[in-house]
Amino acid sequence: MSMRMTGMFSGMDTESIIQELVSAKQTKVDTKKKEQTKLQWKQDAWKDLNTKLKNLQSKYIANMRFSDAYSKKTTKVSNSSAVSVITGEGAVNGVQSLEIDKLAKTAYLTGGKIKSDKEVTALTTLGDLDETLGDDFSGEITVGAGDKQMTLAINKDTSISAVLNTMKAAGLNASYDAGQKRFFVSSKSSGKDGNFSITSGDADGQKALQMLGISYDANAESTGKSDDETAAHYTKGQDAEIYLNGAKFTNSTNVFEINGLTFTALSETAGETVTVTTEQDTDGIYDMVKNFLKEYNNIVNEMDKLYNADSAKGYEPLTDDEKDALSDSEIEDYEKKIKDALLRRDDNLSTVNSALQQIMSGGIEVGGKTMYLHDFGIDTLGYFTAAENEKHAYHIDGDPDDGSTSGNADKLKTMISNDPDTVISFFTKLSQSLYGKMTDLSKSVDGYRSFGNFYDDKKMKSDYDDYTSKIKELEQKLQDYEDKWYSKFSKMETALAKMQSNASAVTGLLGG
């Protein structure tokens, strides 16, 4: 960069003069930057709309093009406190009877309170509990369920922690509550196969079990209440047992999966017969169609609004200097005017919007008959009735959430109840057409579009990169041009300085 000398000797405002001289080139730079900014905003606008279109296609249309999506059924029970039911895809419509004779139980031992006036922790030993135990005190404790048995050799130094570890190694849940001075032991799963035992075949082992409060009669299940805090209570594991339509079913848990239904037994019915009714889920199909139309309406209304936006002619993105002269709110309002109009009369937007509208308004052949959305009580409002940019939105007659059509007869729900096959066939084929068209509209195009996008993302990125290169080139030209003028003025100032110096020297010689 040339040395920049201001008008020190000439008295000229060289900074202002040079800025005037380079202003035309600066304008070219600013213009390209504004064009690039608008392109970036347009990309952002399309990205947002593209995401919504893809969500509509993947979240609703992709599923609704298969008849299985409409195979929605629901199951009701006459006593919801006794059983809950989840309806699966393979469930069959009909009325069934259910009785719950037994609920599944988990084998559980609540230990008796350990007799000791001292603090008893996991580190406490048998010798700590009974100081009279001698070195000859020895035996075994066997813990386990089924084939998984663990044996612990005991003596006076055996700790509560060692007993707990043996129980855990045997596949049991085991803990010790120091505050209550009790063991709590249970099987890891419910059902009779989870029954476990804690035994000993020798006298010292039996004594140890009694000292620890875990001695109990394995052949008798503790029932009711006991005032003796030191007695252990053992509850046997039990399988759940139900009768469905007179047929017996047993399971280790309270959950039964039978013929497409998942039953969860909650309480024994004690002779009561619970009625289980499975039928077509009219509300489920209706809600699916309604939610699809709501999403479609939001998008088509937005596309209409973007396409029909007011012109922003004469509005261009602001430079930093221009922003400095405005408040934040003024800048926001100004830029909003531009952004709202970015897709005004956009050809690509028009193509996508028109394609969707054409399919939605077209006929679908069902059972040899051409049917339309209005045959199901679904239609747009009148041209003069619909709000601006909402003229292509669809409304369902009788929809309680729609103030425009809530008072009309609910034709869609009636048809779902009375003729579900026709409804399913129509919306399946409609969705297939929409899916196919949207897939075509979002195909990859070399140099223009990536797969899955409804706009020319590749072309926009290429154009944006071109702007970056062009701006860099223009800025360099601007810099060179500016440096050239500074160099010229610098030389002029240098010459004037020499002249002034020579003049002073002559004056000095003349005695001036």
Draw up the topology in text:
Elements (H helix, E strand, L loop, with lengths): L13 H51 L8 E5 L5 E5 L6 E9 L5 E3 L15 H4 L8 E8 L2 E8 L4 H10 L2 E6 L4 E6 L9 E3 L3 H9 L21 E3 L4 E5 L2 E5 L3 E4 L2 E5 L8 E7 L1 H26 L12 H5 L3 H13 L6 H15 L2 E3 L2 E3 L6 E3 L13 E3 L14 H8 L1 H22 L15 H53 L3
Antiparallel strand pairs: 1-15, 2-14, 3-11, 3-15, 4-8, 4-10, 5-6, 5-9, 7-8, 11-12, 13-14, 16-17, 18-19
Q: Give me the Rg, rounded.
A: 43 Å
Low-confidence stretches: 1-5, 7-11
Number of helices: 11
Q: So what's the overall shape?
A: flat
Question: Number of folding domains?
Answer: 3
Query: Major sheet, described briefly?
Result: 5 strands, antiparallel
Strand content: 15-25%
Strand order of the largest sheet: 1-15-3-11-12
Helical fraction equals 40-55%
State the secondary-structure class.
alpha+beta
Question: Residue-averaged pLDDT, rounded?
Answer: 90
**SSE succession:** HEEEEHEEHEEEHEEEEEEHHHHEEEEHHH
Question: Strand tally, please?
Answer: 19
Intertermini distance:
40 Å
